[in-house]
Sequence to fold (342 residues):
Amino acid sequence: MRILKVILFVLLVVFIGIQFMPTKRNQSDLVPKTDFLVVNNTPETIGKLLQVSCYDCHSNNTAYPWYNGIQPIAWFLEDHIMEGKKELNFSEWDAYSNRRKNSKLKSIMSQIRDDEMPLFTYTLIHRDAILSDVEKQSIIEYMKSVQDSL
Amino acid sequence: MKNLRVTTTIIAMAFVGLTAMSCKDGQKEESSATMDSEVSQEQGSTSTSDAQNPESQQVLADYMSLKDALVATDEKAAADAGKKLESTLKSIKLDSYTSEEQKELKEIIESATEHAEHIGRSDMAHQREHFQMLNQDVTDMVAITGTANTLYQQFCPMYGEGGAWLSMEKEIRNPYFGSKMMKCGEVQKEIN
Fold:
């Protein structure tokens, strides 16, 4: 019993300790000229959908939830965002070659069509990021039109 | 005595925690160090001026083993071939090409590397999706680098908006469907 108490106490101390560990925040007030929405002059309705459902992990600006103030959640999110931006960064869209833009668009369309994105673990908490069938269709059609204009 | 034990445990935990953190940083440094050595290796070796660049031939060879793995619907073999292709693409040298070709090839390689990397860690459906895009890159690469062997550009209209691939044989063996539709496709073009 005493052992258990000690363990709990240690865990508590570690938990408090890691709260002081720094994390990198993915935030920027500036919308760069290379941003997908700027470059393509995306209609507002589509832009809004992308910002709510994709931009948290696929751009240089995350709207952080309150629990990002708690470790180790903040680490988990930091990792997720880094991974997401590596795959696709809407903020730096125009830095991709046309070849890569083309394959990114293809992947965006197939990921949305197959319900692989937005991630289930993300929509579990971000209920507003869930895309309806109509919204999915409109994004896919829009991405197709961007692809055709390349 | 009890206090001492608790304190020791806390210190030990803190130590473990910090070590784990510093390990994370250490790994990062290590990987950037490997990258540096790769770069210097590339600079150190001499360039080849043959029309058929041996590395682009190796890209084609890796591409063919990837394609064969997809024909066999072998996810593991396809992943291995993807990883092999990724490392071949990273070592390709462009010195023997004109600056315009180099620019184009750089974009092709950058894109192909991304697809190869995905193939190296995805399930079969994703591997085939990326193979379709990779195929465009490899076909465009061959248009610049040329090929030592005759290649057949083949096409199956059933996969997505149509899936193309390259093969050394005329006979159709479909990498997008494997045994489900092994014979779907036709030869579109012969590339020499």
Helices of chain B lie at 2-44, 54-71, 75-90, 99-119, 124-145. The radius of gyration of chain B is 23 Å.
